Amino acid sequence: MAHFVLPNSGHNYDPESSKLGMWLFLFTEILLFGGLFIVYFVYRTINSDAFLRASYELNITMGTINTIILITSSMTVAMAITALQKGKEKFAINLLWITLLFAIAFLINKYFEWSIKIEHGIFPGMEHYNGLETGQKLYFFLYYFMTGLHALHIIVGAIFIGFVIKGIQEGNVTADRISLLENSGLYWHLVDLIWIYLFPLFYLIN
Amino acid sequence: MEDHSKEKQHIVSYKENFGTWLGLMLLTALTVAVSVANASLITLTVVTALVIATTKAILVAYYFMHLKFDHKLYRIMLLIITLLFSSFMLLTIVDYLSR
């Protein structure tokens, strides 16, 4: 095999391709959650009364707080991109740290929400849950599965943003090489987008 | 080449980001208010909630995700995925309603 060195080896940076790749990945995420939303709509159509009764167990205030947290964290990520594009690296890093704090606040809120329900015995396999009618069981099963999968995405998104903070600090992510920050932002906004649908469909059934 | 790609990059101002946030907040307040107040209008609130959620989703995609300032290709791709998902949804709903 002949030895040769590519003229640009080690310096490949193609923001358009990485953005395109990120979007393609986001589409698979949309279809993943989309499938679950279809399951939700089918079961809700069949068990509309049971879904309504089960939804009274959820705390609208806590759901609203988490919605506000996620929307605000989306804004801080978007602003971090603006800040880095303007060359203000310190400000961008601070905004990303604020986003991470919001992510942790969201998860703490979720932890309390879940543990209150589990204390009441509402979790697949627990006594109170087993006594519920089928429609309510389906509602809580979907609630745990969908908000759990969403919380997993919050954790992944937070780790991603953590790597971006490190990248900015080490000078690998700059105004001229902003792709990684933009992609982490896209991911974070998608997680926010999914919550925008989860919130009314689980908390605001009336 | 380098200069060309720099030219295309649009910097969204802090003001625009804040404006988007404000819009999302108002829509959240609206959807909670509609849900809590209109408890008797069952079907209306489901549709209203979904319309408001979709408006919020478009705001997030256009401003926070920079779709408004990106190449047209991204908007077309997202439209195709949305249509694909909507057709799945429609087919499933038609199936269940016609049983």
How is this fold's topology laid out?
The complex is a heterodimer of chains A (206) and B (99).
Chain A: H1 15-46, H2 48-55, H3 60-85, H4 89-119, H5 127-130, H6 134-169, H7 179-203
Chain B: H1 2-8, H2 14-37, H3 42-64, H4 72-97
Helix pairs in contact in B: 2-3
Largest sheet of chain B: none
| Morphology call of chain B | flat
Count every beta strand of chain A, where a strand is a DSSP E run of 2 or more residues: 0
Task: Determine the oligomeric state from the structure.
Answer: heterodimer
Describe this protein's structure.
The complex is a heterodimer of chains A (about 210) and B (about 100). Chain A is mostly helical. Chain A has a single domain, classed as Up-down Bundle (Four Helix Bundle (Hemerythrin (Met), subunit A)). Chain A has helices at about 15-45, 50-55, 60-85, 90-120, 125-130, 135-170, 180-205. Chain A is elongated, with a radius of gyration of 21 Å. In chain A, about 35% of the residues are buried. The mean pLDDT of chain A is about 90. By secondary structure, chain B is mainly α. Chain B folds into two domains: about 1-70; about 70-100. In chain B, about 80% of the residues lie in helices and about 0% in strands. Chain B contains four helices and no strands. Chain B has helices at about 1-10, 15-35, 40-65, 70-95. The chains are: A mainly alpha (about 210), B mainly alpha (about 100).
